[in-house]
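Troubleshooting: if your tokenizer reports a length mismatch, compare your output against this known-good record of 630 residues.
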Amino acid sequence: MTLFSIAKKNVARNFSQYFLYIASMVFSIVIYFTFVTLKYSDTIEREIESSQKIGSLMSGAAFVLIFFVAIFIFYCNAFFMKKRKKEVALYALLGVRKRQIGFMLFFENLLLGAVSLLAGIIIGFLASKGLLSILIRLMGYDVATPFTFSWQAVMNTVIIFMIIFLVTSLQGYRVIYQFKLIDLFHASAKGEAVTKPNPVIAAIGVFLVGLGYFLALQDMTSKIWQVLGLLVTPMVILFATIIGTYLLFHSFTGTMLKWLKKSEKWLWRNLRVLTISQLLHRVKAHATTLTLIAILSATTITAGGAVFGLYYNISSTVKQMDPNTYMFVEQDEATTKKINRIVGDADYNRVVETIEQNFTYNGEKMAYTLLSESEYNRLANVQQRDEIHVKGHQFYALDAAYDERFSPSYTNMTLQTKQEDFKVIDYKPYNVLNSALAYSTMVVSDDVYDTFAAKKTAKLQHFRVVIDPDATKADAKKVATILPEDAQLSSQPADMQANVESMGVLLFIGSFLGLVFLAATGSIIYFKMLTEAEEDKAKYVMLHKMGVSMKAMRRSIAGQNVVIFFVPLLIGILHSAVALKAFSSLLSMNLIIPVCMWMLAYTMIYALFYVLTVWSYTKMIKQTIQTEGV
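Known-good structure output:
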């Protein structure tokens, strides 16, 4: 019997234990293969204008994915090697040479990698049509998507992952040369270094996390941000949160569990003493891993929630900045007729005259677009905005990008020209003209407007403004084709499409990267808990002999896994909630609905890993009791 055939038998025998690892690797390979395939997709290159940008984004995402998957594979491989060390020691005890054992482990890892790679590429090819359809839909296109196969993508995927699998296989080969025989027999009993929980360290952890939250929720214009600096403050937030999270798992959680152990009436019910004792050991032993999972979950939820929030708000954001379907500098009569044939019976289609005027405010020159009261009210009536009435030297400000932190304080603001002063009586956080061409606008009375227009130095601008709710992307392309470059076209459909394209690609990449990260973190906890189950078999057999029911043991197992799975998730969600609150404040955008949807989806998938882990853990203990119990 050859070493390769032994390796095949070992893989087949342990397939159930390797299944989630293989499934996570296959899923990662599918996503990587999809990203690379989409980069070379003829459909995207032919149908989508921003295909080069998509290719760059896919390449960047693939690099991030490879970096993470490599760490995940190395991490899992270390777990498996720890579990197999006793088996390796038995081979050595039976007289098998280290070199032969090393080759057997090398073949096993390589075989697992090859199977995962083959399955990943096949599934990736079969899934390419569906994934390409999702991407194109997210980008706002309606294009038929064929099956996509690229030899470049296949070669790229094979080379990258075979390098990773070769390195991990060599890692397994080297293990047997790093330990003595007695160390291999006792390897499974060695866990991470465990330290006693310290209330002082726990308090420091809570303080650091609180400090990170406090700084993140402060406005960027606050004194503390100004003192620390715009570059230093985010770094302080990041380090305080990460270190604080580690200390939470290192001491705070352990301190809480120790306090629970002091409540004797509560503790001596339903195996709670076992549950708390096991958790006290595991939370402290796995503090580093749990911290990484919490931070990774926070990063994934924050990035995904932010992108999904921006995608969710695209329509309202574009309409805020572009209230009119089209706005462009008025052209000759022939061009106007062509445009009118495209827009048909639009709700609004007329030339709007504005004036670009310079003013002085607190010694600084500021340029504003002047719009007459009558023109504003005509547009406001169609856009369903409030009418504005001003008198004399009064101005009314319109600013679609208004932010009280950065925008001028318009109310009672005095603007000066060489001859006169004008007082801004109020403002609206929107504009009736497209912001790309009108910027910040001042509504003035018709008389004052005529006075400015009559000046020889007046910079009059004549814009054709069209409001057509039924305009399509095809219509917008025709309008853009007809108009010359100097028309300075501002097109709501075009801006909407551009935003949907860019945010759609980011949402696609972020969602699938998030799923890979989620599968990897879920798998890591799964392997850790099953490794713990191997070590705890004797304890549960003893409990069974003492008369403890399987139902009580299952409840204890479920309780331990709830803490290990959901405490990092809850901390990650809390971190991301604070980060997204700061992000939404920065952009002055309501992200509550999309962020809650994203968090709910993430939690539901995470819960599946919890259910699978509890089921596998319970099954392993039950089989052990049936085999060894009396």
